[in-house]
Structures are given as C-alpha cells and as structure tokens.
Write a structure and sequence with these properties.
Distance between the termini: 26 Å
Order of helices and strands: EEEEHHHEEEEE
Structural class: alpha+beta
Oligomer: single chain
Largest sheet: 5 strands, antiparallel
Number of domains: 2
CATH architecture of the largest domain: 2-Layer Sandwich
Length: 143
C-alpha cells in the first residue's frame, strides 16, 4: 500500500520511499528500497517479506518494466486505489501552513496534481508536500 506522499508499505511497515523532484520541466524520480535488511523495527525488506534473494539488477529491471508499461493516465487512479491515507484522520505538517501550524482533519482525496486533500470543518486544504501522520483518534462531529 502507499502512504501519502511517498512511503510504500507492507502492512504497517515501510519497505520503500519514493521522491520526485521537478527540474527544468522534467520529473526526476528517486526510489529507495529495503532489499535485504530493514534499518528500523518499523520497517521491513523485500527479503524479510518473501524469503527469496532478489538482486538489485533484477528488481530494477522489474520496476522499469512496470513503470514503462503503465499508461500515465492510470498512475493517479492506481495511486488513489492503493493509498492508505485516504479516509484517515491525519496531521499534516508543512512549511506553508498558517504560522507553520499543522492541519488536522480527514484525508478525503488526492487531486490531479497529487496534492492531499484534507477536510477540516467546512474547509478543504490541498497539501502539496510535507509530513503526514495517520492519527488513531476520532475527530469530533463536524470535523
């Protein structure tokens, strides 16, 4: 599953992270995958999950093939379908928040630009980047 904005999860554990940066009208994508070990107890690795040795070259070939065979118009649809953040109560922290205060609300969507849509009372906030935490506390009615 995916956790907005860039975590790849197996269950509740992080197995990979994806970063995208726009440079001169191009998107540069970086992917970090825990192949053989996991750095934290909140993480996992490919080897831990499937108990099979996978080489970096084989994994890279598989990833490139998968990216190359997915039509771009389906990427956002697939992201939304796999995003565990949607429907969750979240705390979003980012530099553009009013006085750098976090936004706490329900994640209700991903817009066409990939921004997380967070509903707080009657307002809808579109968050382009930052940290997003899934909260385990219910919101009061109306939030």
């Amino acid at each position: 599953m995916l956790k907005w904005p860039n975590d790849v999860l197996v269950g509740e554990k992080k197995i990979a992270g994806i970063l995208v940066e726009n440079v001169d009208e191009r998107a540069i994508v970086g992917i970090g995958i825990n192949l053989t070990t996991s750095p934290l107890n909140t993480a996992t690795s490919v080897h831990q999950e499937i108990s099979i040795e996978v080489s970096r070259d084989d994994l890279l070939e598989l990833i490139l093939h998968r990216f190359g065979s997915t039509p771009s118009e389906l990427v956002l649809t697939q992201y939304r379908a796999l995003c565990t953040t949607l429907g969750q109560v979240v705390r979003a922290e980012f530099g553009g928040a009013v006085a750098n205060r976090p936004i706490i609300g329900r994640a209700v969507g991903i817009d066409p630009a990939g921004r997380l849509l967070v509903a707080v009372d009657e307002a809808l906030h579109a968050i382009a980047s930052g940290e997003c935490f899934h909260l385990q506390v219910p919101l009061q009615e109306g939030q």
